[in-house]
Amino acid sequence: MKFGVLLSGGKDSLYATWKIMQTGGEIACFITINSQNAESYMFHTPNISLTRLQAKASGITLLEEKTQGVEEEELDDLNNAITRAAKEFHLDGIVTGAIQSVYQASRIERICHQEGLWCISPLWLCDQESYIRSLISDGFEVIIAGVYADPFDASWLGTWIDNSFIDRISKISGKYQISLAGEGGEYESFVCYAPFFKQRIIIKDADKIFEHGAGYYHVKEAGLIS
Amino acid sequence: MLDISNPVVPVLCDEFVSPVARIIEQKGISVKKIHISDLIQIKHKVTGIIICGTALADSWYKDKRIEPLVSRYNVPILGICAGMQMLLSESGGVVIQSLEIGMIPVTLSCDGKEDILTKGKDEFSGYALHQYATTIPETWTVLAHSKNTAQIVRYSDKFWYGVLFHPEVRNEWIIERFVDITIK
């Protein structure tokens, strides 16, 4: 079956891609929604333009759609993007990286149903600690691209999701009710390398922007190396 | 745990079966996941059966039958979403179109307020993801309903339940209570 993946640039959409590939599914395209609203409920925003590098690194075509990010109206833009991708790439379904968000999942399910497409979320309700450990052991190289909750501070931005990250976040997750995978919006990530990438993304220049308890890792320059 | 999803999309087991299995395993109960096409391979002691749901677009299960499994084991059964449709359609229910997606209000009936599976939870929200339901055969009792259709049903004289919404999403208590019933 041929799928399009809703690509945010973060670990969940790319790990979902990996799981589909491992079980024999064909990924025909990535679909990225470029939201102008940093507070969007639906779409991941830090460094979204870098999904172009991820698509290039994996050799998969990227289809981009812009949205103003107005709540609910942004769903029309998502609908347009999915419709366009389905037509252009003859898709059977859409893959999402949703883990727990009923808000996101139900809206994407509705659009897929209207378009006669399958909607698959391979990480849905997964065990988050096992998932993060698999991400590392499967060779994904992921950084923290945004932090939005206590007690995260600027020191987390740009750090790798590795075993020391798991130790660090496990110590605070209970006290601050932080989900290990960041599914509550506590943090967002960016994937520099996945097992199906033919090239690796190198961040050459970046700033840590942090104020009023939230921040993001602003990548100013990045490229690909073989 | 019975997986009734289309084998062409094996990752559906991760989405619709594994989350239910994890809730049971967290209670210290061992779980075996079996695809409906492998029923002959069951060699374990069975104390309860859960027929899990599948993707909204998946209709592969519609010409499959669970009667051989149901008649082989006299144990409590829980059919979730498409699993409920299979249980009821093999008891005389007719499959009908009934689209519900997202969180929906669910209200217990008078029977539901007394049943061991549901009592004490008069009103709650359930995560619905289905485009079909069935008519309710006379041998089944409605324990809870949404605005559109029956959401939880029970076979009259057995611990056979159907839940149309997905209890593994925000209503884990239903699966935990069902497991308690299998232990009793």
Features of the shown structure:
heterodimer, A: 226 residues, alpha/beta, Rossmann fold, putative n-type atp pyrophosphatase, domain 2, 2 domains, five-stranded parallel β-sheet, four-stranded antiparallel β-sheet, 33% helix, 29% strand, globular, B: 184 residues, seven-stranded mixed β-sheet, two-stranded parallel sheet, 24% helix
Helix and strand arrangement:
The complex is a heterodimer of chains A (226) and B (184).
Chain A: E1 2-6, H1 11-22, E2 26-35, H2 51-58, E3 62-67, H3 74-89, E4 93-95, H4 102-115, E5 118-120, H5 128-137, E6 141-147, H6 163-176, E7 187-193, E8 200-211, E9 214-225
Parallel strand pairs in A: 1-2, 1-4, 2-3, 4-5
Antiparallel strand pairs in A: 6-7, 6-9, 8-9
Helix pairs in contact in A: 3-4
Chain B: E1 2-3, H1 12-16, H2 18-25, E2 34-35, E3 49-51, H3 67-72, E4 77-80, H4 82-89, E5 95-108, H5 110-114, E6 123-134, E7 140-145, E8 150-155, E9 160-163, H6 172-183
Parallel strand pairs in B: 1-2, 3-4, 4-9
Antiparallel strand pairs in B: 5-6, 5-7, 7-8, 8-9
Describe the overall structure.
With 226 residues, chain A is an alpha/beta fold. Chain A folds into 2 domains: 119 residues, HUPs (Rossmann fold, 3-Layer(aba) Sandwich), CATH 3.40.50; 92 residues, putative n-type atp pyrophosphatase, domain 2. Chain A contains 6 helices and 9 strands. Chain A has a 5-stranded parallel beta sheet with strand order 3-2-1-4-5, with helices on both faces. In chain A, β1, α1 and β2 form a beta-alpha-beta unit. The model of chain A has no long low-confidence stretch (mean pLDDT 92). Chain B has 6 helices and 9 strands, in the order βααββαβαβαββββα. The chains are: A alpha/beta (226), B alpha/beta (184). The interface between A and B is medium-sized, with 25 and 24 residues.
